[in-house]
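pasting for ref
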Amino acid sequence: MRDEEEIREQYEFLKEQLESDDMNHQGIREMFTHYKRALGWTLEEEYI
C-alpha cells in the first residue's frame, strides 16, 4: 500500500504537468498514465 505522502507527491507532479506550457499530445498521455497510477493507489487504500 502507498502512504499519503506518496499520493500527495504524485498529485503535485500531475498539477505541475498540467500547468506546463510544454503540454502536448505525448505529455497528456504521460500525465494520464501518472493520474491512473495515483488513482489506483488511492482506491487501493480505501478498499483494502
